[in-house]
Amino acid sequence: MRDVAIVAFAQTGHRRRTDELSEVDMLMPVLHQVLGETGLKARDIGFTCSGSSDYLAGRAFSFTMALDGVGAHPPISESHVEMDGAWALYEAWVKLQTGEADTALVYAYGKSSPGEVRDVLTRQLDPYYVAPLWPDSVALAALQAQALIDTGAADEAALAEVAARSRTDAAANPYAQLTGDVPAGDYLVRPLRTGDCPPVGDGAAAVVLAVGDTARALCARPAWIRGIDHRIEAHGLGVRDLTDSPSTRLAAERAGAFERPVDTAELHAPFTSQEVVLRTALGLGDEVSVNPSGGALAANPVMAAGLVRLGEAAARIHRGESDRALAHATSGPCLQQNLVAVLEGESAHA
Amino acid sequence: MPEVLSAPLVVEFPFTRSLGPVQSAFLTGLRERTVLGVRTGDGKVLVPPVEYDPVTAEEIRDLVEVAATGTVTTWAWNPAPRRDQPLDTPFAWVLVRLDGADTALLHVLDAPGPEAVRTGMRVRVRWAADRTGAITDIACFEPYEGDADGSRPAPHSGEFTDPVTTIVTPARLDYTYTPGRAQTAYINALAERRTVGERCPSCRKVYVPPRGACPTCGVATAEPVEVGPRGTVTTYCVVNIKAAHTANLGIEVPYVYAHIALDGADLALHGRIGGIPYDQVRMGLRVEPVWTEGGRYPDHYRPTGEPDADYDTYKELL
Question: What is the pTM of this model?
């Protein structure tokens, strides 16, 4: 295996609306920032991969317009996933493992503001038995939250504490959309209140990956990807135990997360109840700093929020605030698909 | 900066999907008020049924009939139904394990309020009056006092007269489209019968229409540059199929659709060529835009009557 690290990370300030910005307008500052931090030009990048969704934009092949911001002419080696950018990062990591590239630019963006994201996300559901009922993303998360409450593992007060802790932590995150003392609010879909749900917003993120000594040359303290894996569960919601996340646990195991303790975990949990499920599935104790960025409850740019988790975990390693961090991304309803990466910084004397 | 444009954008698509043997039996069964499940290799009954075992991935076809009554395994109260959801009054989303099944079905429960719903409550199917072979043939669930009878699900052939083999699932999503700064400026200028591109600060190329970024340099373009109105046909094609869209019904075929390099632009845009027989359009033809009365953009381009442009003047723009 080649040693691969995240060497730069940038994200936009996440906002409820960005009407004045096209996707490429929103994306360019973060692309320029990660390239600027590494001193690389688009020409120097061996592989480029992005994550986004046409359903958010309401337009076919919307990612091709965003590609203008990369400088794709003369031709570059490029790919796209119709998923969160965390999966684009996985594809780039695989590309680097093949030896065909030494550096990769990964970016992701999503504007939820043009549509109704609760409705838009119903289009990813089973089209025969589920999508015709239009169960929106909050409704499905609420079913999971009630199942969790029924087990006694959490109650509404415990969920509210997750929300409060996340948004309090987010006050130190200049990019977060929702910070500070946020009221629990009314039930959106009971048992979830507005405070248990992520803000709807627009945003983008980018990272640069590099191998071995290239990474060391580009970054004072690279965040080495020691393991990365992703797993999926049955699409039938009634087949799964919604109070557990076996796919997260398996991905974490394959990524080596359980070999040694982590000090930080960036969990992609858009709903408070999902953080409880993920903490349990990963066996994270109180000694682990969970979502110091505020997590998806503070900013949830759909298609970029998972990549932001990887970026936030890496940035803590870059800054020396973490030595070993777990980063998690999810996709699909009720934590259907999950990706886990373990990131480490080299010790100072190494 | 002028206010950015915005407009409603509706995306609608009626997907036609073929069902396969198991889903066909299940949805036809609903039309006939019969709920079918499928038995896995280890004896579990999945409702709704799938064609492949979620654990072993083996193909499964062993259909059984289960009851139209069941037990709520989890629920969520929806105080504000959204468009296209099954009920337009507040309802509960429910996962229901039907009597005889080992897995739960997602649907909705008609109940007076959240206090009337709990995990473990007994419910039964309320059938839709008009059933077509769709999940919505179950109108909803409703509270039911009876206990489960505990009998094993009965084997079922899955055969019905006139089986449903395909479904059409309409979907509509509503957006408010905002094209952003660069395209807003372009569209606003067009309404004034001007064509405005943007110059890349790095390579100095002028992009028309502007998209806000230079695809060569990957930097924002910002300097507005008025181009045209005249331009040169760089390449073209002859369209022989009449437009289906009502806005274009008046366009007779064959007609020519062309790439046109407006004077001063470093990128060709595309438009329809009129005012000349389709078989006389050629590379190098000099054209100008034609606006219809009140039009916010050029309807088509017509010949200017100038001599054709020399190939060397536009060969880089092909």
Answer: 0.95
| Lookup: tokens for B131 | 């059933």
Of A57, A106, A308, whose CA–CA distance to B180 is shortest?
A: A57
Smallest CA–CA distance from B20 into chain A, residue: A128
CA distance A125 to chain B (A): 12
Using one digit for the tens of pLDDT, what is the confidence trace for B135-186?
Answer: 999 999 999 998 887 788 999 999 999 999 999 998 999 999 998 889 999 9
Q: State how far the alpha carbon of B186 is from the alpha carbons of A164, B149, B205, B219, B289, in Å.
A: 45, 69, 16, 18, 15
Interval A258-281: pLDDT, tens: 999 999 999 999 999 999 999 999
d(CA A59, CA B179): 12
How do the residues of chain A divide into helix, strand and coil, expressed in percent and rounded to 5?
40, 20, 40
DSSP H or E run through A28 = helix A23-38
> In this complex, which of B54, B76, B135 lies closest to A239 when CB atoms are compared?
B54
CA A131, A137, A142, A144 dihedral sign is positive
Angle subtended at Cα B236 by Cα B233 and Cα B238, rounded to the nearest 5 degrees? 135
Residue A67 vs residues A12, A19, A32, B66, B205: alpha-carbon distances, Å = 17, 19, 13, 52, 18
Whole-number Cα distances in Å, A259 to A41, A255, A345, B168, B268 = 37, 9, 16, 50, 58
Q: How many CA atoms lie within 13 A of B300 on its CB side?
A: 14
Rounded distance between C-alpha atoms, residue B227 and residue A173, angstroms: 45
Q: Is the ipTM of this complex over 0.85?
A: yes
What is the percentage of chain B residues whose pLDDT exceeds 90? 86
In this predicted structure, the answer to whether residue A350 has a pLDDT above a threshold of 70 is no
CA distance A227 to A328: 12
* E strand spans, A128-214: 187-189, 192-193, 202-211
**Given this model, what pLDDT does residue B2 score?**
59
A333 preceded by a cis bond (ω within 30 of 0): no
Write the CB contacts of A231 (distance below 8 Å, at least 6 apart in sequence): A247, A248, A250, A251, A254, A337, A338
Chain A residues in contact with B169 by the CB 8 A cut-off are 127-128, 131-132
CB contact under 8 A, A22 and B212: yes
- From the candidates A21, A23, A68, A113, which should be mutated to test the interface with B, based on the most B CB atoms within 10 A? A68
Average pLDDT, chain A: 96
